[in-house]
């Protein structure tokens, strides 16, 4: 209660020390205490004389007399003096809409408060004006959350993140416990939730979870809002974040944009933060007593918990996430492409002097004209594609996981290298057989006399080139001295070939 006995007479033009509502209550009190006239009370309280007279009339109508009861507070006094006659407290004077339904409608594309107010007034012509309508709706939103409300249009955004808590999975043979990551994605307008367990947060698992999430939704929103995970964002920045190239190619395949949340701003993705907490309690909390022996078992149990989450009726809105998704969000999602995205890893590399590039300890050839040039490698589970100069594909290879480490396309080799690469023991034998059986025997002996056949290629080539290309008939190479050293056989071969050439 205001202590009016401490009030002092002061000039009428000075600033009032009391608030307007308190001054109105004190005005009546001062009248009873000091028995002063309206002019004196007006000067003391710093209010107009007409306000003092109005308050005196209200006190008479409220049946108030001095001294006031000790339990009568300022709020109660103000309520008795200024309560509206004929209006029951706790009820609006005009018909109100169902604010929860309007909140759902506002999420639909193109819907504004003005449109909702016009529809409301068409049903209730004597209803609230637009400004009061907006004020009441904002009050309803504040009751939903004490923080700033973010407006999420249907089909606009999906928020993705990993849970900090993990799913334990036991190896059936060894008993070793391995922890799996929990990926969570939630749509902005309906809060429809997707979750799954993966072994890691690496790029293949990160992108694979997105592909399965879009399949779960049956459509694609306009934007993805991830955290600044390294698998998705190479460099976090408020002004110009750098998106991982493989992640960007996945987004391009689905026609969706990537808008990372600001660094260290969790409220930018409050949807998924809340969904992660909810998933931890509804999934990890309820499954904590179950033992999983494989990732498949864990995900099967998570699917059951997801159905429970999405079918749960939200207390404030009175409808489930699934209902919101089916009625509001799904029609606004873009359609899925004809084929799911196949994960591909992109790497920058430089062509070595042997016109090969390295990827995961295996080497793949490119056209020899690109030596020392920088190229892009696109690696899928089945193939290696190599691009140069504005995305032009210059080579494609089947991906290698074992066997020879080099995959070489003969078309990529220089002509001299290509001819050398065609040197094989079988080719030398066929070439020698075309001259004669003795020559074939000699070549076979030379190749067999070396620890490695390749070490005899130059010798065989020298012998076979002794046979003149212009000979019109076959000439056999004498095998005289076949049992002696190979150099003697080579010398004999030269003599025989020269003799055959002269006779021709």
List the helices and strands and how they pair.
Blueprint: H1 20-34, H2 38-45, H3 49-62, H4 74-82, H5 99-105, H6 113-123, H7 130-144, E1 157-162, E2 167-170, E3 177-187, E4 193-198, H8 203-217, E5 223-226, E6 233-235, E7 242-243, H9 245-254, E8 257-258, H10 270-285, H11 295-311, H12 321-329, E9 345-350, E10 356-359, E11 362-365, E12 374-379, E13 383-388, E14 392-398, E15 406-407, H13 415-421, H14 425-435, H15 437-448, H16 457-464, H17 486-503
Parallel strand pairs: 1-5, 5-8, 11-15
Antiparallel strand pairs: 1-3, 2-3, 3-4, 6-7, 9-12, 10-11, 12-13, 13-14
Describe what this molecule looks like in 3D.
This protein has 504 residues and is an alpha+beta fold. It is built from 17 helices and 15 strands. It has helices spanning 20-34, 38-45, 49-62, 74-82, 99-105, 113-123, 130-144, 203-217, 245-254, 270-285, 295-311, 321-329, 415-421, 425-435, 437-448, 457-464, 486-503, and strands at residues 157-162, 167-170, 177-187, 193-198, 223-226, 233-235, 242-243, 257-258, 345-350, 356-359, 362-365, 374-379, 383-388, 392-398, 406-407. Strands 1, 2, 3, 4, 5 and 8 form a six-stranded mixed beta sheet that branches. The chain has a four-stranded antiparallel beta sheet with strand order 9-12-13-14, with no helix packed on it. Strands 10-11-15 form a three-stranded mixed beta sheet, with no helix packed on it. The model is unreliable at 1-20 and 472-485 (pLDDT under 50).
């Amino acid at each position: 209660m205001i202590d009016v006995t401490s009030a002092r007479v002061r000039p009428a033009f000075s600033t009032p020390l009391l608030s307007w509502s308190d001054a109105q209550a004190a005005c009546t009190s001062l009248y009873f205490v000091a028995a002063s006239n309206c002019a004196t009370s007006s000067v003391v309280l710093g209010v107009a004389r007409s306000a003092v007279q109005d308050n005196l009339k209200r006190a008479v109508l409220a049946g108030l007399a001095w001294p006031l009861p000790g339990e009568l507070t300022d709020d109660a006094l103000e309520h008795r003096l200024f309560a509206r006659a004929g209006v029951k407290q706790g009820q609006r004077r005009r018909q109100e809409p169902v604010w929860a339904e309007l909140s759902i409608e506002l999420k639909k594309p193109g819907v504004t408060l003005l449109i909702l107010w016009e529809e409301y007034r068409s049903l209730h012509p004597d209803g609230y004006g637009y400004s009061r309508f907006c004020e009441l709706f904002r009050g309803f939103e504040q009751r939903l959350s004490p923080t700033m409300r973010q407006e999420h249009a249907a089909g606009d955004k999906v928020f993705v993140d990993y849970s900090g808590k993990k799913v334990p999975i036991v190896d059936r043979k060894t008993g070793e416990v391995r922890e799996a990551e929990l990926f969570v994605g939630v749509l902005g307008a309906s809060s429809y939730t997707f979750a799954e367990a993966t072994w890691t947060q690496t790029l293949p698992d990160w992108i694979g979870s997105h592909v399965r999430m879009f399949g779960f939704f049956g459509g694609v929103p306009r934007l993805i809002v991830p955290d600044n995970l390294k698998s998705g964002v190479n460099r976090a920045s408020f002004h110009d974040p750098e998106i991982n190239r493989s992640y960007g190619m996945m987004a391009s395949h689905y026609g969706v944009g990537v808008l990372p949340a600001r660094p260290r701003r969790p409220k930018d993705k409050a949807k998924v933060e809340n969904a992660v907490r909810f998933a931890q309690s509804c999934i990890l909390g309820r499954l904590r007593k179950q033992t999983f022996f494989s990732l498949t078992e864990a995900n099967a149990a998570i699917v059951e918990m997801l159905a429970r989450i999405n079918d749960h009726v939200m207390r404030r809105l009175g409808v489930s996430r699934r209902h919101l998704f089916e009625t509001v969000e799904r029609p606004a999602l873009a359609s899925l492409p004809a084929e799911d995205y196949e994960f591909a890893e992109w790497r920058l590399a430089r062509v070595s002097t042997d016109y090969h590039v390295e990827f995961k300890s295996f080497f793949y050839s490119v056209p020899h004209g690109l030596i020392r040039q920088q190229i892009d490698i696109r690696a899928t589970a089945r193939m290696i594609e190599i691009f140069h100069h504005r995305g032009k594909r210059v080579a494609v290879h089947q991906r290698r996981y074992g066997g020879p480490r080099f995959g070489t396309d003969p078309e990529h080799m220089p002509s001299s290298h290509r001819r050398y690469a065609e040197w094989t023991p079988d080719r030398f034998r066929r070439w020698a057989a075309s001259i004669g059986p003795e020559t074939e025997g000699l070549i076979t002996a030379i190749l067999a006399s070396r620890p490695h056949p390749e070490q005899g290629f130059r010798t065989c080539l020298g012998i076979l080139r002794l046979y003149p290309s212009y000979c019109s008939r076959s000439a056999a190479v004498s095998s005289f001295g076949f049992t002696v050293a190979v150099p003697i056989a080579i010398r004999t071969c030269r003599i025989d070939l020269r003799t055959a050439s002269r006779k021709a």
